[in-house]
Write a structure and sequence with these properties.
Strand content: under 5%
Largest sheet: 2 strands, parallel
Shape: globular
Number of strands: 2
Radius of gyration: 19 Å
Structural class: mainly alpha
Amino acid sequence: MATKAVHLEVVSDLSADAFLAAFRRFISRRGKPTNMFSDNATNFKGASSYLKEQLKLIKSVEVQNFVTQESITWHFIPPTAAHIGGLWEAGIKSTKQLLIKTMKSAVLNLEELVTLVTQIEACLNSRPLTPLSNDPQDLQPLTPGHFLIGAPMASFPEEVPSQPTSVLKEEMEFNSTSPKSVLEEMAPGVPKSITTKNQVE
C-alpha cells in the first residue's frame, strides 16, 4: 500500500548547514527514509539560478556524506522522465497557492512564518484520500493525518486574547483567521468534522 503526505520546513538560508538541519528535523519527526528522490540537473535547463543552486546544494559533499552515513539512497530522476516528480510538484504548487492566498502582502517574522507553514502542512494533510460520503453516519474518510498521527489533524486556533496591543492584535488576527480561510477557500474537500472539531485530547 502506498500513500502520500506533505512535510514542510522553513530554513534561514540556502546553505548546506541549513539544509542538513532541516533534514535532521525531518528525520527526528518522521523517521529516517531509505530513499530520497530529486529532479536532475538537466531538468533545470533554462530554469532560474535558484533551482540550479538547489541542485548544487543537494549534491554538495556535506549533504552526500550525511546521507551516506545514514544509509539513505538519493535518486535523481532521469532527464526525460520529469513526470516521475509530478506528485511532489503538485504538493509544491498547492503549498505556493496557500502561501500566496494566506499571506498576501503581510510581512511575517520567522516564528509567524514557521507557524503558518506548519498550519498549511496540516491543511494539506487533511485532504481526504478516499471518496467523501454523503451519509453523516458514515466513517470519516482517511487522510494523510491518519497515517502520520493516527487521527485527523487538530483544528486550528481561532481565539484572539482579550485586549492585546494594536500591532499584536493585527498579527494575532492574521495568524488565527488565515488558516481557517485557507481550509474554506482552498481545500473544499476537507470534511467539516476535521476542520471544526478538535481531535486532540
